[in-house]
Amino acid sequence: MDIFHINDTQVLQNPEQPETLINVGGFLWLDASHEEVAAAPEAWRNRVEAITGIQIYELHLKDVSNLSHPSYFDATEEYEMVVFRKLTLTEANGDIKNGVKRKIPAALNKLATTPVSFLLMQNVLVTVRPAQSRTVELARQRLLDYKSRAENNTHGSRLPASPEELMLRLLNAMVDQYLELRQPLTQQLDRWQHALLDPRRPFNNWLALLDSRVELRKLDNLCEEQRDAMQELRDHIVDTHDGNSRAKDLLLVRTNDVMEHISRVLNHARRLEASLESAVQIHFAAMAHRTSEIMRTLTVITALFMPLTLITGIFGMNFEVMPLLKHASGFWYTMGGMGVIVVLLLVYFRSQRYLQDQASRRIE
Question: Is the pLDDT reported for residue 171 higher than 60?
Fold first, then answer.
């Protein structure tokens, strides 16, 4: 577990006797990985208690080690707990389900998530996160690289003033990863739509399409859980925060910003899901229209041959005396009459718009 002491001017990593720094200004950030906590949960809890003087509840200790825990918020008299599921970026082209590799589009492969737990105590922030977390690592590096602003520089960055502000900064960076998914997801949807509506190549990758819809539904549910957790955190800040109004307003602004970003991802996921459903419906409508065109053509061909079949059936009767049966030109008269019937039917069908060529369809 790494320990950071953060005040207005500097950041110290792993200071000696960190428990003595809680009340001398600034705050502490205790950062641990899931593997560290899972390897010795009691030892980790005792270490946190020795520094903060607060013992983590047994159920919360299990929650921070649970890699399948959903996003949620909980509050006790001594600390608040926030669990937020962040993206785990992978390079795989699919995953294994029931022994079969699912062909999920590249953009949707990035929807694998893992929880990050935040414990907010007085002047202390405790985080439990994956060992490989780009967001947390970047935040740690920025804190360690921090240099005090020059007096004439009014646009420099500043260190977080409280554990709540540091947590909200980390949450905002995690949500931004979801925002970065919008463009590749939209591009993937465009590819699905072109594949569904391409008349030259029949679409048969229905399993991948179903898996994509499942992943979008997971993103929808994930964003709802995150938004609910942030809403409960916001309500808790409004009800219990005892700081000055400026600090409280700053926390509310940052919380609202995180919630607004989550809502944007949620709305985008829902729009993509609706667009994908519309593309599937258009695909089946186009297939039904194509089938209708084929059936109309076959019906017209059948109608053309019906009178010809009738004529051949009549002349196939076993009567000894029939008109034109023994006439020298009877065969040619019959063939000519059949040809005239076909031409007249074609003219009639075209006048009734039963038959249309491809050029006329494009013009219309």
Answer: yes
**Would you list the DSSP string of 215-256?**
HHHHHHHHHHHHHHHHHHHHHHHHHH--S-HHHHHHHHHHHH
139-to-89, 146, 180, 220 alpha-carbon distances in Å? 17, 11, 18, 27
Q: Can you read off the two tokens belonging to residue 45?
A: 């809890």
255-276 burial, b at 16+ Cβ within 10 Å, e below that, comes to beebbebbeebbebbeebbeeb
- Return the structure tokens found at 82: 């926030």
| Phi, psi at 158, each rounded to 5° | -135, 160
More confident residue, 324 or 55: 55
Cα–Cα dist 26/63, whole Å: 28
In a domain, 29, yes or no: yes
What does the alpha-carbon distance between residue 328 and residue 41 come to, in Å, rounded to a whole number? Answer: 108
Among 286, 311, 326, the domain boundary falls at 286
pLDDT, tens digit, for every residue of 112-154? 888 899 998 888 899 998 888 888 888 888 888 876 544 444 4
Strand partners of residue 95? 102
Domain end: 260, 286, 312, which one? 286
DSSP-assigned beta bridge partners for residue 303: none
Mean pLDDT of 46-62: 88
What's the one-letter identity of residue 267? N
Find the domain containing 99 and state its range: 2-148+160-286
Return d(Cα 362, Cα 144) in angstroms, integer: 65
- Domain membership of residue 226 (yes or no) is yes
